[in-house]
Amino acid sequence: MTSLLPNPDLVSTTPLVFKLYSFPPPRRLFTLRRSSFARNSSSLPLVAVSSLSATAAKPTRWREKQEFAENDSISLLNERIRRDLGKRETSRPAMDSEEADKYIQMVKEQQERGLQKLKGVRQGTETGSGGGFSYKVDPYSLLSGDYVVHKKVGIGRFVGIKFDVPKDSSEPLEYVFIEYADGMAKLPLKQASRLLYRYNLPNETKRPRTLSRLSDTSVWERRKTKGKVAIQKMVVDLMELYLHRLRQKRYPYPKNPIMADFAAQFPYNATPDQKQAFLDVDKDLTERETPMDRLICGDVGFGKTEVALRAIFCVVSAGKQAMVLAPTIVLAKQHYDVISERFSLYPQIKVGLLSRFQTKAEKEEYLEMIKNGDLNIIVGTHSLLGSRVVYSNLGLLVVDEEQRFGVKQKEKIASFKTSVDVLTLSATPIPRTLYLALTGFRDASLISTPPPERIPIKTHLSSFRKEKVIEAIKNELDRGGQVFYVLPRIKGLEEVMNFLEEAFPDIDIAMAHGKQYSKQLEETMERFAQGKIKILICTNIVESGLDIQNANTIIIQDVQQFGLAQLYQLRGRVGRADKEAHAYLFYPDKSLLSDQALERLSALEECRELGQGFQLAERDMGIRGFGTIFGEQQTGDVGNVGIDLFFEMLFESLSKVEELRIFSVPYNLVKIDIDINPRLPSEYVNYLENPMEIINEAEKAAEKDMWSLMQFTENLRRQYGKEPYSMEIILKKLYVRRMAADLGVNRIYASGKIVVMKTNMSKKVFNLIKDSMTCDVYRSSLIHEGDQIMNFCWSYQENSY
C-alpha cells in the first residue's frame, strides 16, 4: 500500500485532495436517476461517483471529428489538473509508506526547530504542552479602539479593562469589555487571556470589514472554516516544497583540514550565535546529501559575512564555484574587497567582480573565465543571473539582502535552489522568507547576540527642523566623526547640498546616488571610506554594504517614504564601532502621515536594542503583509481571522500533519460495483479501428496517475475529436476509479438510493475535504461512518447553483 501525504490536488504521485474538491460545481445539474447520467456533472469526485451509478443514456449519433464544448466535465477537470500541476514535477517516483513516515517526521522536526530557534519565548505568547505556538494577546497591551479576535465569537473592538462585581460574589474582578456589532461583551480577564488575539491585516487597512455579532456566531464559524481551508492549502504547498527539496541529492562536501587555518584568520571572538551558525552551515554542507537552503538572519555588523566566507571556502576548496549576489554595486564592491583580502593567502583561488564599472572587453574576459572555470568566486549584482553568465561548476550561491531584488531576480534565485547550495544573508528578511523560516520549512540560523564592543544606536524621531539637523551634524563633527544624510529621492539632494555648504563652509561634502557615472560614484565612496569626505548626502544606495567605522551619525529625511526594513538597514550604517551612534529620523508633519507610516516609525522606535532585526521583520510582515508567497495573494485568507490567529492555526495544522495523511490504494484493487455498461456506436468503433486497444491504453494511463490519464484524454480528443456519450462514460469511470485509488477508496457500490464508498480515510481528512466544498448541497449529502462514506446526493430535479 502506498502511503501518501495530504495534498490538495489529487494528482501526481502524492494525491492532492484539496483543490480538486473545491472545483466549482456546474451551473446546472440535470436530472439524475438510476437510468441516466449527469451530462454536466461536477468534477467533485465524491459527487461524480453517484453519477456513475447510472446506466448510460442512449448516445447521440457520433460525427467524425465533431467539435466539443470546452466546458464539458472532462475538459473542465483536465483544465483544473493542468492548472494545479502545470508547474509541478510530474515524474517524481511514488512514495512508499516507510519513506512517507520518514519525511513526515523530518517535517515535524524541522518545524519544531523553526519555532524554537526563531521565536523562543516572547511577551504575549505561550508554548502549549504539545510544543505548539500561541499568538494570544496580553489584554493589558491593548489600547482602547484596537481590534481583537475572540476565538469563539469573532472580531470586536477592545474598549477597556474595568473592575466589576460578579453576580455570585462580593469580590470585584477585572473584566475585559469588547464591543461587537450588536452589543457589548464582558469577559473575565483570565478567560480573555486564553481566547483573545490581536486583529492585524496584511495590508494598510487595519479596519475589519465588519464586526461579528454576539447573537449569531455562524458567520464567524464560516470565516474560520475558510481560514482552515486556506491553511490546509498552504500546509500542502509547504510540505511539497520541503519534500521536493529533500529529494534533491548531491554528495556531501569533504571536511577540509585546512578549514581550521582559514577560520583562525577571523580577527574577532565569535559570539555563541555565530558559533552555532558556523556549525549549522558546516553540517548542511558536509553531512547532508540535500542542497542547503539556509537563511542567516542577523543585524548589520553581527558577523553574517564570516558565516558566508567559511561556506565559500568549503565549497571552493572542493573544486566548485561560488557566486556572491548583492543588490547594489556598492555592496558588491565591499564583498569583493573583503573576500579578496581573506583569500589572499590562497593564490590558487581566483576572485572576480562583475560590474558596470568594467569595460566591455573586461566583462567579456570575465565571462569567458567563469565559463571555463578559471574564476572560483564570482561577485556581482543581478547581472550574474543573466543568460550570458554560464558557470562551469557552480556549487554555492550566497544572496545578500534578498529583499532588495526584484521579482524576476527572486524567481531566478529560486531556480538555483534545486541544484546548488544557497545561503541567504539578511538583517530584515522579506515576508515570504520570514514566513518559511517561521514555519520551519526553511533552515534558518539567527545571530542575535551583538559583538561585545557594540553599543545600541540612539534613535531620535521628530518633525524636521534645520536647527536640529545642524546641531546633530555639529555634535558628530566635533568628535571627529562622519555623517550620512539620506533622502528618499535624487530630487532634493542639491537643495540639501546648498543648505549644508552654507551651514558648514569648511567641511568636505559630497553626493552619491545611482544615476552618477560609475567612476564618479566609486571615487566618492572611496573618499568617504578614507575619511576625506565628512558628510555624504545620498539616496538609499548606501542602505546595504558600507562599513564606515568612523561614521556614527545618520540623518534620514522624509522617513515616511521609506519601508520599515529600509529604515532599519539605513540605521545600521552607523554604530559599527565602540562609539555611541545616533540616528535622526525626520518627518515633515505627523498629521500628514498615514496610519501605516506611523506604525512603521513606532515599530522602529520599539526595536532600539541590538539584534532585533528579526522581530522588526516580523512587525513589517504584520504591517505590509506576506506578499506573494506561493504565487497567489493570501491577504483575503488572512483577513478572515487576522494574522495572529491565522498563524496559530497554521502551526497547529503543521503539528498535526501526520493525522491528515491519506493512504492510497493500488488502482487495480479499486472496484466500482455499479451497473454501467455503455455501448459504443458502430460508427465510432469503425472510426477508431481498434477500440479495445485504445481503451486498454486509457486503463494503463489511469493506472499510472491522474496526469497521465489527463494527457491520454486530451490526445484522444485531438486525434479523433469529441467522443460519443458512451465513450465519455467509460472515461469518466476511469477518472473516478483513479480518484478513488488516490483517496484511499477501494470499493464503490449502490445500496438502494445511496452510493457507498469503502475507504481507509480518517474522519478528520473527510471533514477537511467536506469543509472545502463550495456547494452546501454536496456537503450536506455526505456522511462518514466507520470505513464508509455515504452519498445521499442520488436523485435531483433540475437545480441552479
TrEMBL record:
InterPro entries: CarD-like/TRCF_RID (IPR003711), CarD-like/TRCF_RID_sf (IPR036101), DEAD/DEAH_box_helicase_dom (IPR011545), Helicase_ATP-bd (IPR014001), Helicase_C-like (IPR001650), P-loop_NTPase (IPR027417), TRCF-like_C_D7 (IPR037235). Residues 465-622 form the Helicase C-terminal domain. It holds the Pfam family CarD_TRCF_RID. Residues 285-447 form the Helicase ATP-binding domain. Keywords: ATP-binding, DNA-binding, Helicase, Hydrolase, Nucleotide-binding. One of its GO terms (molecular function) is DNA binding. The keyword DNA-binding applies. This is ATP-dependent DNA helicase At3g02060, chloroplastic. It comes from Eutrema salsugineum. The lineage of its organism: Eukaryota, Viridiplantae, Streptophyta, Embryophyta, Tracheophyta.
